[in-house]
Design brief:
12 helices, 365 residues, five-stranded parallel beta sheet, alpha/beta
Length: 365
């Protein structure tokens, strides 16, 4: 796709949905069959494939490996850091490619439909297409067309840092497996901090990116073009959330558009968070902060637009846990149902105890 997010894609690819390209090894990343080489040296990767991986990484697209080969091949890759470091959550084993892709998606915390497989074998591509119909598969010769889909796309600072941040996430996962204690104790030890405030001008592109690329934690699927138009309209405010922990910065992980046009009510046409923070309480903390801020501003009602999808069950559960229920006046809206709750009287939900939440220093009180 070229141009702004949300425009038709003449190449047939949708970059907003592609989060990771998974590469086969033998016959794809390199010419030889690794287990048949006469020495323990790694086959020489094709220069054009490494260039493609680097070009995708510069645009925030991750790369992984799914190879039906001996696991020792991955050990040989580890001996060549300039090759191994390009790939996250690699799978090298004799299991089916479809199973490898499921494991990669799970390890990265993304939907399996956000993967693309590049493989020289028609059989392997067919196996994945049959068992994972939401995954796009490509022959190596189709990689240039994939790259063309990302040309002229706006690249945010978070996009450029995405690969590094996912590597940091691997460190978090490893430390979590080693940690002697409960999950909650580990989250407390991580010292996670969420800062929230009105979006600065240079944060708007990232908010648009979240609207386009997030699915698990996205309330309405509002398009970037529609979000941009609404954010510029009178009575609307755009908020962003940043997160950090002892391992480093997550960057901007959440965006919320607030419509304050109706007196006494805050309406949220879009609440979207990165899947990287799923399961850590950030979505709940962001939502609860918005509700508290709405009450402090004098609003008596809080409303969220929800368009249920196969992917956003986690968001739907969160909204229900926050006490939001479908209203009687949303009718047959094209943009989704409206969930609401009163802010008058009683305590509002609190963020998880392990997550420190505060307004950004540059945000108004």
């Amino acid at each position: 796709m070229t141009g702004a997010p949300g425009t038709p894609d003449p190449t047939g690819y949708d970059p907003d949905r592609i989060k990771c390209v998974v590469w086969d090894l033998d016959g794809t990343l390199w010419d030889e069959v690794a287990v048949e080489t006469p020495t323990d040296e790694l086959p020489v990767p094709r220069a054009e494939m490494l260039a493609a991986i680097d070009a995708l990484a510069a645009r925030g697209v991750l790369s992984s490996v799914a190879s039906r080969s001996a696991p020792a091949v991955l050990d040989r890759m580890s001996a060549v850091p300039e090759v191994r470091e390009r790939f996250l959550a690699p799978q090298v084993s004799w299991q089916d490619k479809s199973e490898s892709l499921r494991r990669i998606a799970k390890d990265l915390g993304i939907a399996v439909e956000a993967l693309v497989l590049v493989d020289d074998s028609p059989y392997e591509r067919a196996e994945v297409e049959a068992l994972l119909p939401g995954v796009r598969t490509l022959a190596p010769g189709e990689v240039p067309a994939l790259l063309a889909a990302f040309e002229d796309r706006e690249v945010t600072p978070e996009s450029r840092e995405r690969v590094r941040r996912y590597r940091t996430e691997e460190t978090r996962r490893t430390e979590g497996e080693r940690f002697q204690g409960t999950r909650e104790e580990f989250l407390r030890w991580c010292d996670m901090r969420l800062t929230v405030g009105p979006a600065a001008l240079d944060e708007v592109p990232r908010a648009l990116e979240l609207a386009a690329r997030t699915h698990r934690l996205n309330s309405s699927g509002l398009t970037p073009d529609r979000l941009r138009a609404l954010a510029a309209a009178d009575g609307h405010e755009l908020y962003t959330a940043r997160m950090s922990d002892r391992f480093g910065e997550y960057g901007i992980i959440g965006a919320a558009l607030v419509d304050r046009a109706a007196p006494g009510s805050w309406s949220v046409p879009l609440l979207a968070l990165s899947c990287r923070v799923a399961g850590r309480g950030a979505a709940a903390a962001f939502l609860f902060w918005l509700m508290e801020r709405a009450r402090e501003s004098g609003a008596g009602e809080f409303r969220v637009t929800l368009r249920p999808t196969d992917a956003n069950l986690e968001m739907r559960i969160l909204l229900r846990q926050a006490g939001l229920r479908r209203t009687e006046d949303d009718g047959d809206r094209d943009d989704g149902a409206v969930l609401a709750r009163s802010l008058e009287g009683g305590d509002l939900p609190k963020p998880p105890a392990w997550l420190h939440v505060s307004p950004r220093k540059d945000a108004d009180a």
